Structures are given as structure tokens and as C-alpha cells.
Amino acid sequence: MRVQLTAVGLVTVMAAGGLTACGSSSSGDTSGGGNRTLTLGTTTVVSQWDPYQNDWGPFLQPQQAAYDSLVHRNPDGSFAPGLATKWRYADPSTFDMTIRHGVTFSDGTKLDAAAVKANLDHGTSVQGPRTDEIAAISKVTVTAPDQVRIKLSRPDPSLPLVFSAVLGQMASPKALKDPALLKKKPVGAGPYTLDTAATTPGDKYTFVKNPKYWDAKSVKFDKLVFPIIQDSTASLNALRSGQIDGAIGTLDDVPAAKAAGLAVSSSLSYFTALNINDRSGRQVKALGDVRVRRALNYAVDREALQATAGEGQPTTQIFPPGQPGYVKALDKAYPYSPAKAKKLLAQAGYPNGIDLTVTNTAVLFFDRYGQALAQQLKKSGIRIKIHNVSLPQYQAMRLSDKNPLYAWFYNWIGTPIDANRLLRKNGQYNPYRVDNPKLDKLIDKAAAETGARQRATYEEISKEVVDQALFVVTNIGKTYYFYNPKKVKEMNYVPLESLPFVRGLEPAS
Amino acid sequence: MLRTVLRRLLVVVPMLWGIATLAFCLVNLIPGSPARTILGDGATAEQVAALDRKMGYDRPLADQYWTWLSHVLRGDFGTSLLTSRPTTADVGARLPITLSVVAGAVLLTVVVGVAVGVLSAIGGRRLDRAGQSVLSFFMAVPSFWLGVLLVFLLSIRLGWLPATGYVPFAHSPGRWLASIALPCLSVAAVGIATVARQTRGAMLDVLTKDYIRTLRAAGVSNRSLIFRHALRNASIPIVTSVGFQFIGLLGSTVIVEQVFALNGLGALTLSAVNGKDFPVVLTVVLFTTTIVLAANLLVDVANAWLNPKARRA
């Protein structure tokens, strides 16, 4: 449910998953070839079905069942044709797509270039959790019945990625005109359709195979059931007792899951950090001084902190391994050194150390993380007062311009989008609107480039961010998924995603 | 008795109003904005403020309160900010789950609690002692812990009952019963122990009364003596206690719903509070208040029926 957007972000990363097939186990459904059911616990389901007003991440599985996207993504993260068979940037500000023939939506409407235009026009006219990703679209034109041309107000290289997630999910243009309908059920051209009779909103969602799906032979399960289970213990119990076949897991539960014969997949999907909102020192003067920010970076022992973030790895940078912008050497940029930290603080005019307040919430991993950080920083003369607030209050404060410093994690989407969100003057994760013309210029430059050049520019951005110590990034965290290998072949993560995709899942036998 | 009922009903209206008003104030103390929840991290502060304005959450509180109250009086409880469904539909979908567990637990409490209590009272010293030890144990055990234990034994190890989830009665009465068995058992344990102790005490007390001795001397059968005479008189404090159990259970299901992944009222309230979904929170408060008041009324009526003295009180 949209309700929990932000909370859900937290929940996805750190907490549980899973739901339960109501009542008796689903294992009985595996035997016959005719009725294969896969039951996947989920912590949350979207509360309405207009893709443009929905988030992705923890919501992606049911959405992927209901809707097909313009672009598909292979397990290695590379792109593959979806509802669009071909696409290319004619120039950095023009994107052309060829739309697949012979596809119909579940209400019988035909998918063509006009339908895609209707979707994108709708998407740019509403405000949703992800619509910043298509903010650069200025005009969509139908150039032939199966050809769409998108003009951009500024170069944006992320469209294939954007169109492979929620904003590339095509809804029936007829349904888009009827918001009341999309509040109740999805009307897409996806591999499954929602069985409303077997669905209780907020409790359990049942999808049945769409026989008219254009790639129906790739759909190997006849039914997908998503029960909502928010508690990680309940989720693991449901898995162990065979009520569900897969669900998001926690690091703490990995040994128990393995002992129960479950398969565990994982993904490096977020970084944890002491985040500096007040990068210019408007509210807390010291934070505006690069020497203080560097001191903070030297004062954290990333190796020791790793235990709080799972089995990822220590890091100093905002981009993840394997993605544009990641520079391996940068991870050694700030080796743990209280001596260096103290020296830098003294140079900045704080020979006796400084006092800082960190906003935190005493739930999930934040409690452990915040405490550990405070302990470490103390050794460098940085006295942290942790200001603990409730989770709802934390959600509300995190991205406000009255919250200079806080513990957090960030779920990656993809380098071009992450750069926009984290660094740009009007980025969502820059609530103090700190202006850094050099970074903005580099981001624009990268957006207009391709290939090796673009990678080099993103690396330059990463170096600048680390050098200016705009964040105190400490660790990369892993997200875990538990599934029953006797029921489903493989449920691996596509890089950076919060959940394994449901597209292409195959029965184990 | 009719007067008792009418008098109680008169109190219900101002009580509902008072609780609703209090709930409205409390809900507005929850930090954060509904728009932030709806729009997610992707939205800027400006966009969040704009949506809050659009939904009317920038208006003075008194203003919002008046709008809300006048709608409620007309039977319009509003729509959920997050699901856009009428809040009554959301609450209506979740209520059966919670009520199934609570009602099942109360039934279990009464049947088992009274049976164990009566047996302890009349079954001889050895049985009584054994019963007392077992009851002390169950009174001390937290229900969520018992729930976890039951799931481990009965679901994971033995596979007898489902570990999580709810099946509506209409889909399959058998599976419905299976789905609520463990939650009922785990929340009822404390109540069973309490009611059993109370029954035992009241029975022992009543059984020493003169009229029982007289009845026994008059040759009334043992069964009739215990069930028709002793238990009926002993049941007044038991009924009151069961009424409290019911109300207490309604509140304590939040945790048990988490353990068993039952998406009942507790789960709904939790997500509504986290998402600042005011209309849903307020509707839940009004519904549960009504249920609690109705339960209280029922206890009063039952007491009046059992005890003629109470009718005049």
C-alpha cells in the first residue's frame, strides 16, 4: 500500500516479508501440471493501480504480475525488448521507440504508439513517488502507428532503465481515463490479471495467468498469490511450514532459513550513511566546513560498522560496485583514523572537538547503527547526541530542511537517477537546496554522453563527492530473499532491485 | 431491565463523541504528513506541501474537526487517504478477522475456563492442586511468546495447523477454524486461567452456602446442584470478567496479529498510523469504541438477568 511508502522502504531493506497462503498449504498445487500456484509473501502491495502514482522497490512483484513494461531487464541487469521491441537515442534529447504489434490490454484495448503516448502524457501530468524520473520529458509524438518519439527538455540517459520499472508499465488508455477503476484493479497487458474475487485488499492478492499475454509461453505458473506478511518471524514461519514459497528475509534469519532447507538470494541494494543535509552549514556552521566533514569520514570505522548493515562491504561513495560512477580506489579514501580526524577538527577551529546532534529512530537497524556510530565518533572528539524520534516522525523529518544530520540508508535505482536525487540543487535528497554548480554541470555533462565517456564523468562526480565529503557513506547493505527451491527454480535479484522479479519464474520440477 | 438498557444507551452518545474528539486530537499529534506518505521520498518538500493543501490538511484544526464531525454525523466516515476506498470498506474487510479471533478466544475462555474452574472446585484436592499449577503457568506466559511456541510445535514441526494467514468463513468453514485456532489459543490462555481461577473461587464460595446444604439435604441431584444452582450464582463475577477479557483482547490482538500475519484491525491501525491516514484511524476508533460499549451493555444485561438485585441498581 502506498501508505507505507517510506516506511516500506525501511521495511524492505531491513525487515521482513512474506505472507501467507491462507489456511492450508499451497504445496498441494505443485503436483499437477495444470494448476501451478506460486505464493510469495509480501510486506506491502500498492493501494491503487495507476502505475504513475505508484512506487516500485518493495511493491514490484504484484505490479510486475499485472503490468508489462516497455523494456525488460535480464538477470544481469542488461535490457531486453518488452512492449517496446526497439529503442534508441536519436540524440541525447530525443528517444525513439518501436512498439510491439498484436498486444492487447486486459480490457481488450489495443496497445499501439498512441496508447504509449497516452500513458506518458498521463504520467507527466500527475505527481507520483517516481515521476521525477520522467520530469525531463517535454513532448511525446506518435510518428507512426508503432513509433513513438520522446523529446526531452534536457539530456536524460536513464529512460531505458526508467521504462523497465514502474513508469514503463503500460496501462490501458481507457482505464487511465477512469481513475475510479484503477483504484480497484489493474488494467494492463501483463502476464497475469488480478482475480478480484480471490483478493482481499490489504490482506491477500491473487493473480491468474493471462492467456492473451503476448509471451504467454514464458509464464510458467498459473497463479500467483501475494499474501501480506509484515512481521519477519511470521514470514519465516509461513515459509518453513510451506504456506508460502518465497518472501523477503532478514540477515538475522539467514541461518534459520538455510537450516530449514530454504534457498537464500541476496542483492547489494542500499548504502548506509550518516547523512549531511546541511552541507553548506546554514544551520550547523561546522558542517559547512569540508575539514569537519572529512573529519567525520575519518572518524568512522567502516569495517566495524559492517556488522550492522549485513554482509555487504565498507564504502565511502554513493554509487555501487558494477554501476557507472563506482571507483574502487575511493573506498580507501578515508581509512579509520581518529588522529587524522582530530587534526582536521583542530585545523577547522575545533581543537576540543565538536558536539553534533544526529536524528535517528530507535527501530530496525537504525538503533544499532546510530549507537555504533556515536561510540566511534567519540574517539575522535566528535560528541554525538542522538535525537531519537518515532518512525513516523523520522519519515517526516528526514527530508526536511530542518534536519541537519541523520542516520539513514539509500536504496539505489541507477546512477543517473541517483545522481539527480542525491546531488542536484533541487534533488529530493538535498532538502537544504545546497547549490553545487560544479556537480550540476558534471551531471548535465554525463547525461549527454554515452559509453566510456559517460562512465568517466560519473566517476569524476563520485570523486568530487568523496573529496568534498558531502556524505559520510559507511557501508553497502544486502537485501535477502528466502524461497523454497523445491517449488521455484531460481529467484535471483536483478542488480539494485529490492525484490526478485516475478517475470520468467519457473517451477522447480 | 429495559430501563437499564435505555439508561446505558443514553450514556453511549456523549461517550462516543468524547472518544472520537479525543482520537481526532491524538491523531493530529502524529508527526508527519499524509502527502509525504502518498508521494514518497521522490517528492520534494514543495510538492508535499501542495498535496497537503489540496487535501485540506493545511486548514486550521478546528475547521478540519468540524468538517469531519459533520460528515460522520451524516454517516460519512470518509475515504482512506492511501487506498481511496471508503474507510468503512477497509474497516469492514478487516473487522471479521479480528472479531473471529477475539470471539473465538472468548468462547474458548468461557468453555474451558469454566470447565476447569468447576472441576477444580469439585474434583478433589489433588486435581485442584495440579490445576492451580498449570493455571499459574498460563497466567504468567505472554501471549505472543505462546503464539510463537505454538506455531513452532503445531505448524512447523507437526504441520497440523497453518502458521499464518486468515481464511474467510464463507470460503471454507473448516479452514477458517484452522486459521484462527492458534491465534485464539495463544490469546485465550491468560483469560482461561483467569476465568478458571475465578470460577473455582466463586464455586467454592457458593458451595459452602447454607442454601446449597439445604438443597443437598432435600435430595437435589449433584449435577443439578452444581450447574443449576451453584454455577448460576457463581457466574456473575465470571460474566463481568469475561466482558473485560473481550475488551482487553480487542486491544491486545495488535501483537498477535503480527505474529500470525493476520491483517485485521490491529494491522490496519498500525499502517494507518504510520501513514497518517487519519480517516482510517478515526473510523477504527469509532468502530471499536462502539463494539466495546456494546460489550459492556451486554455484560450489564447478562448480569441483570443473572442477578435480580442488579436490575434495580
UniProtKB/TrEMBL annotation, chain B:
One of its GO terms (molecular function) is dipeptide transmembrane transporter activity. Its main location: membrane. Pfam families: BPD_transp_1, BPD_transp_1_N. Keywords: Cell membrane, Membrane, Transmembrane, Transmembrane helix, Transport. It comes from the Bacteria. PROSITE patterns: ABC_TM1. Belongs to the binding-protein-dependent transport system permease family. This is Oligopeptide ABC transporter, permease.
